[in-house]
Amino acid sequence: MAVTIDPDAGVHTVMVHFTVEPGRREVLVEAIGTFVEDVVRHQPGFVSSTVHISLDGTRVINYAQWASREAFEAFQNNPEAMSRQGVIPEFQPSGQLYTIAFQAAAAA
Q1: Between the CA atoms of 25, 26, 30 and 33, what dihedral angle is there, to the nearest 10 degrees?
Q2: Would you list the DSSP string of the chain?
Q3: Are 13 and 108 within 8 A, CB to CB?
């Protein structure tokens, strides 16, 4: 399933925010990529992950989609998966689970 931002898609979105020093940004981005590729993408209910970097280089957001709240919570409560995060916890992630309340597109 591809990344879809659609209120009717039925997915739950997790936005994980990081504040980083620009010199450490690539360390974090690489760690997230490795964790997603090696662990997260193999978890039941995982849909997608997209990493965003602010233009000033001081913030990173991991926009991840899950099939359900229960799938995401099962992943979070999986000690084997969580033990493979590498350096990610050093960056003090802050995240929440969201559903889409509203969406708009440019007028035709």
Answers
A1: 60
A2: ------TTS--EEEEEEEE--GGGHHHHHHHHHHHHHHTGGGSTTEEEEEEEE-TTSSEEEEEEEES-HHHHHHHHT-HHHHTT-TTGGGG--EEEEE----------
A3: no
Residue 51's closest CA among 26, 33, 71?
33
Whole-prediction pTM value? Answer: 0.90
Residue position matching structure tokens 């010199």: 23
* Nearest-angstrom CA–CA distance, 63 and 31: 15
pLDDT, tens digit, 9 for 90 and up, residues 32-76: 999 999 999 999 999 999 999 999 999 999 999 999 999 999 999
All residues at 6 or more sequence positions from 10 whose CB lies less than 8 Å from its CB, including other chains: 67
